[in-house]
Design a protein that fits this description.
Elements lengths: L3 H5 L9 E2 L2 H4 L4 H16 L1 H24 L6 E4 L2 H9 L9 E5 L4 H14 L2 E5 L9 H9 L5 E7 L11 H10 L3 E5 L11 H4 L3 E5 L11 E5 L25 H7 L7 H4 L1 H8 L6 H24 L13 E6 L4 H10 L2 E2 L1 E4 L6 E6 L6 H15 L3
Helix pairs in contact: 3-4, 5-6, 13-15
Length: 388
């Protein structure tokens, strides 16, 4: 097996930086960057042939690979630039009426919550919020809180699979099952999930599921997908209406005809999906299952190390973690602490949550990280916090 230094050399991250924030924007391995440049070179050699003759076949190739990886039917999957676009496409396609209720949680990603508020304000729908505690003792608290907010007016639940702010893996399976039985649609923001957790979207049964490919799958930026229940696809429209809206073709669904072409764009990130899945899956003997477990184990070990060093308690059970973990820090100025960590060549996510001066720190664990990275973070935090 390769050593840590060998794994680190597969990415182009500055070796001077202790990079512990893979979760925010991902990091694309050098081999996948080279694959993307190959696609860009091919496109620019003959743009007409590339888009007119090659584009759709290449898109379908990536679609088949992506669908197989997340346990979906290729016929139900389209590509979007990012999970935020996927969430917006679904929300802005819903025919909400005044008085309809759309449910979310207090840990929902800010961009998605903004989209929900925007659509509700336009339609007269009501946003209801299931309050999730943090620190949290068990996944059952999530199920109980969400269930308590469901009424006969609830049209849709928007829920993160892995929360961005708090790094929690939410128990979405039993929640989706219960709402399906009640005829309530579910939109899962799975921005962090592909490549972090095993996915079987057919079994999960969400009405809509969107996920990023540039984070834990390590594809280039601008690669994400949206999977929609076949019975609902005819109502879901892309954010840009383009040629597919009046296409006479019968060989593909309107859903795919519209999303597959929303205007000229660089498709190289999406075309790199097969390479990213194959490449990352080849780095450990056990393939993707071993890689996901390795990253999760490292995140938990790093959290335990930091909690011991800072003499704080873990804010959630390990069962609710993937390859990110969050710690609650003593109250203080978030921006100042972040700048001091950057000055020490450390990249983590720091934010005021749920409001200033409360602050939380989120770490990520990817193959290029090792426990000594978090030991350095712990030492620097001890130094800085002792001066606060």
């Amino acid at each position: 097996m390769m050593s840590h230094s060998d794994w680190r050399s597969l990415w182009s991250i500055d070796p001077a930086i202790t990079f512990l924030n893979h979760g925010s924007f991902g990091a694309c391995p050098i081999a996948v960057q080279q694959e993307q440049q190959m696609w860009r070179d091919r496109l620019e050699r003959d743009p007409m042939r590339f888009f007119v003759s090659d584009y759709e076949k290449l898109l379908d190739r990536s679609r088949q690979t992506m669908a197989a990886f997340v346990g979906a039917d290729a016929a139900d999957l389209v590509f979007v630039p990012n999970a935020t676009a996927g969430v917006n496409a679904v929300l802005r396609s819903l025919n909400l009426r005044p008085g309809d209720e759309v449910l979310t949680t207090s840990h929902e990603y800010n961009a998605s919550r903004n989209a929900l508020d925007f659509v509700a304000a336009q339609s007269g729908a009501i946003v209801t919020v299931a309050e999730l505690p943090f620190p949290i003792e068990s996944a059952s608290q999530v199920i109980e809180s969400v269930s308590s907010k469901v009424t006969d007016k609830t049209r849709l639940l928007l829920i993160d699979h892995v929360t961005s702010q708090t790094g929690l893996v939410l128990p979405i399976e039993p929640i989706i099952s219960k709402l399906n039985a009640a005829g309530i649609e579910t939109l899962v923001d799975g921005a962090h999930t592909p490549g972090m957790l095993p996915l079987n979207l057919k079994k999960l049964g969400a009405t809509y599921y969107t996920g990023n490919v540039h984070k834990w799958l390590c594809a280039p930026k601008s690669a994400a997908f949206l999977v929609a229940d076949r019975a609902r696809q005819s109502q879901i429209r892309p954010l840009a209406i383009s040629h597919g809206a009046n296409s006479l073709r019968q060989d593909k669904s309107r859903f795919q005809l519209e999303f597959d072409w929303t205007g000229t764009a660089d498709p190289s990130a999406v075309f790199c999906i097969p390479k990213a899945i194959e490449y990352l899956g080849s780095l450990l003997p056990g393939g993707w299952p071993e890689l996901m477990q390795h990253n999760r184990n490292l995140a938990i070990a790093a959290r335990d190390l930091l909690c011991d060093a800072l003499q704080i308690s873990p804010p959630c059970p390990a069962e609710m973690l993937g390859s990110m973990a969050v710690l609650s820090l003593p109250n203080g100025d978030c921006e100042s602490l972040y700048r001091q960590l950057v000055d020490r060549a450390i990249q983590v996510q720091l934010q005021a949550w749920p409001r200033s001066p409360q602050r939380i720190l989120r770490i990520s664990a990817q193959l290029y990280n090792q426990l000594s990275n978090y030991e350095y973070l712990a030492t620097m935090l001890q130094e800085i916090l002792s001066l606060d």
